[in-house]
Structures are given as structure tokens and as C-alpha cells.
């Protein structure tokens, strides 16, 4: 089996969850004797050489690539990475209005980009039932061509040790956030205000973006005596793994997460997890995490305090290890690849 994988053009510049998902998926599939190639826009392709084109993310950054692949007749697998805080009725009305506006004046919305890519796809791989619900009931896509393949985590995080981080930075049992700094969806600002106000020892790991939101975050970090910023830690570094193991609570106060790969990494490394309730997170973390309403600073503070006052256990770590390693996700993906091949043979 030979698969060509693509995504948005800035993926390696921005990094983040989709980049990790693609790299991890490709690594696992290669161990299963599946030939994987990452799409290169400067290369000329004969798409008949591949069994599938697998596109990750469904938005304006991937739309033209997906449409081109479909027009050229390749079998098209889509992992949308889609979530919306709108109800299904709102999404249906949005899709209807977007379709009319597009025909009348070439006006597009993010919902329309996702909906059309889903319509083009031969197979849609969702990572939560919440995402499937939005796509099938909100965007009105045929449920028969959807399948669930969850996101995963690298097993190496399971074996992380706190010693290296403690030795290098002299801090343990802190609150940890890992992700972009300055991306509005990550909702970091209210968390920083809480951490600063309550003088909670905390570490923020991630690249700082050139945005006004990032500058507001940096103002708090720079004046705070309890918040430490590490902006140049690579995802595959031992320091990141050690930070997960050394922290008390890992927190993602995002507007939504699908489900938050960093939270899976932290959880399997032994951290307590405090995370947004939006995006399908409860399907992954179940009763093993504390959930927060990202639109309420009081909820963020309450969930964090609750987590800090709880003892650490191995329950979440074992739950993630037993259900959400990339190897397990890869097996599920292969099943769906084979099913699509057999159905279209």
C-alpha cells in the first residue's frame, strides 16, 4: 500500500498538533510496511502510483490542494481536525448561507471550506464522536463515509523522568502549559492572570508568536515572579518529556482542543490534567481529568485549584497507555484504509 500525505503549506513553519499527528502517523505506518510519502508542491506526481491521498485539516489552507486531488481522480482520505462551538442548527444555517454567498459573490467561510472538502472525500476520519456529530448533523455529510480514528501519543513519554528538568531548572510540582503563545484559541491570557495573581509556580513552554495577544501574555510573564517561560524547547527533546513528568498539573484552557496532543503527552508522563471541556476532550480523558469552561476565568481557577489539591495517581497514565498510543491508532487507520480499498476494488 502506498499513501501520499498532505496538509496546509505552513505546517512545518507553525508546527503544532497536526504536524505531530502527521509525523507520528507516517512513522507508525512505515513500520507496518506501508509506503508513505509527504506531499511536495514542487514535485510532479502521477497519482495513479498511490492508493490514497490523505489530507490532514479541512480549511482554507488545504482546500485547493484537496480539490485538485479530487479533480485528478485520486482516492481521497480526509482527516478534517474540525470543531465548532456552534450548534448543529447554526452550522446548517451557516453552510446554507455560505453556499448562497459563494454562488452570488465568491464569498467563502471556514465552514464552507470544510463542508466541501468533506463532500469530496471518499473517507472522512474523525478523532472524536463530537467531531463526527458536527460533520454529519451540522454540515450534513453522509455518516456512512465517516470512521473514527483517535489521536495518539508516543510511548516514550510514558517513561519520562522528572530528574533532568528538576536538575536543570530547580523546580518541581509546578503548573505546566505547552503550546503556542499568542494564539487566541489557546486562551492563555486568563490563565496567566490567575497564575500571577495567586503566585503559583508555573512553566510555560512554546513558541512566542508575533501577535498583540502574545505581547499581552509576555507582559504578565515578564513581571511575574512565579511564571517561567521556555520558548525554544523542541517537541522531541528530553527536557519536554522531563517537564511533563516533573509538573504537578498540566493545563490547557483553550477554547477547544481535539483533544490536545500535549495533554495526552503530559497525562501519559504522569501529570494531572486540567483541560477545556470543549472539542471532545472528555471522550479521551473520561473521569481522569478536571474540566474547565474557557469562557469563565472563575471556572479556570476553580478547576486548577481542584487539580492541585488532588493526589497524583497512575490512573490517567495507564488509561492513555492502554488506549491511545500511536501504534494503536495506526492499526485503526490501516483497517480503514483496507476497508476503503476493498469497497472500491
Structure, described:
One of its GO terms (biological process) is lipopolysaccharide biosynthetic process. GO terms for molecular function: glycosyltransferase activity. Residues 172-315 form the Glycosyl transferase family domain. This protein is α/β, with parallel strands linked by helices and 345 residues long. The protein folds into two domains: 2-152 and 325-343, Glycogen Phosphorylase B (Rossmann fold, 3-Layer(aba) Sandwich); 155-323, Glycogen Phosphorylase B (Rossmann fold, 3-Layer(aba) Sandwich), CATH 3.40.50.2000. The protein is built from 15 helices and twelve strands. It has helices at 11-14, 17-31, 63-71, 88-105, 110-120, 129-138, 163-169, 188-197, 212-223, 238-246, 261-268, 281-285, 297-308, 315-323, 326-343, and strands at 2-6, 35-38, 52-56, 76-79, 123-126, 146-148, 175-178, 202-205, 227-230, 249-252, 272-276, 290-292. A six-stranded parallel beta sheet has the order 2-1-3-4-5-6, sandwiched between helices. Strands 9-8-7-10-11-12 form a six-stranded parallel beta sheet, sandwiched between helices. Helix 8 (188-197) runs parallel beside helix 9. The protein starts with a strand and ends with a helix. The mean pLDDT is 94.
Summarize the SSE layout with pairings:
Blueprint: E1 2-6, H1 11-14, H2 17-31, E2 35-38, E3 52-56, H3 63-71, E4 76-79, H4 88-105, H5 110-120, E5 123-126, H6 129-138, E6 146-148, H7 163-169, E7 175-178, H8 188-197, E8 202-205, H9 212-223, E9 227-230, H10 238-246, E10 249-252, H11 261-268, E11 272-276, H12 281-285, E12 290-292, H13 297-308, H14 315-323, H15 326-343
Parallel strand pairs: 1-2, 1-3, 3-4, 4-5, 5-6, 7-8, 7-10, 8-9, 10-11, 11-12
Protein name: Glycosyltransferase
GO molecular function: glycosyltransferase activity
Domain Glycosyl transferase family: 172-315
Amino acid at each position: 500500500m502506498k499513501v501520499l500525505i498532505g496538509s496546509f503549506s505552513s505546517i512545518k513553519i507553525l508546527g503544532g498538533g497536526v504536524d505531530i499527528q502527521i509525523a507520528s502517523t507516517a512513522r507508525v505506518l512505515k513500520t507496518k510496511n506501508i509506503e508513505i510519502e509527504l506531499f511536495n508542491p514542487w514535485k510532479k506526481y502521477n497519482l495513479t502510483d498511490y492508493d490514497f491521498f490523505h489530507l490532514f485539516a479541512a480549511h482554507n489552507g488545504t482546500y485547493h490542494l484537496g480539490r485538485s486531488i479530487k479533480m485528478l481522480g485520486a482516492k481521497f482520505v480526509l482527516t478534517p481536525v474540525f470543531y465548532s462551538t456552534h450548534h448543529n442548527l447554526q452550522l446548517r444555517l451557516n453552510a446554507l448561507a455560505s453556499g448562497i454567498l459563494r454562488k452570488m459573490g465568491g464569498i467563502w467561510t471556514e465552514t464552507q471550506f470544510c463542508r466541501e472538502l468533506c463532500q469530496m472525500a471518499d473517507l472522512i476520519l474523525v478523532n472524536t464522536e463530537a467531531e463526527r456529530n458536527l460533520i454529519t448533523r451540522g454540515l450534513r455529510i453522509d455518516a456512512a463515509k465517516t470512521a473514527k480514528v483517535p489521536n495518539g501519543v508516543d510511548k516514550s513519554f510514558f517513561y519520562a523522568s522528572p530528574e533532568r528538568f528538576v536538575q536543570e531548572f530547580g523546580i518541581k510540582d509546578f503548573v505546566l502549559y505547552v503550546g503556542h503563545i499568542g494564539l487566541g484559541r489557546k486562551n492563555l491570557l486568563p490563565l496567566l492572570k490567575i497564575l500571577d495573581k495567586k503566585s503559583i509556580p508555573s512553566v510555560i513552554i512554546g513558541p512566542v508568536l508575533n501577535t498583540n495577544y502574545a505581547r499581552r501574555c509576555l507582559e504578565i510573564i515578564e513581571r511575574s515572579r512565579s511564571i517561567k517561560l521556555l520558548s525554544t524547547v523542541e517537541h522531541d527533546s528530553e527536557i519536554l518529556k522531563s517537564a511533563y513528568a516533573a509538573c504537578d498539573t498540566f493545563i490547557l484552557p483553550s477554547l477547544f482542543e481535539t483533544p490536545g496532543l500535549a495533554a495526552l503527552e503530559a497525562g501519559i508522563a504522569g501529570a494531572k490534567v486540567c483541560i477545556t471541556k470543549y472539542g471532545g476532550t472528555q471522550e479521551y480523558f473520561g473521569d481522569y481529568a478536571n474540566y474547565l469552561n474557557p469562557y469563565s476565568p472563575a471556572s479556570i481557577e476553580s478547576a486548577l485549584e481542584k487539580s492541585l489539591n488532588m493526589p497524583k495517581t497512575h490512573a490517567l497514565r495507564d488509561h492513555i497507555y492502554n488506549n491511545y498510543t500511536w501504534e494503536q491508532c495506526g492499526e485503526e487507520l490501516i483497517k480503514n484504509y483496507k476497508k476503503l480499498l476493498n469497497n472500491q476494488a
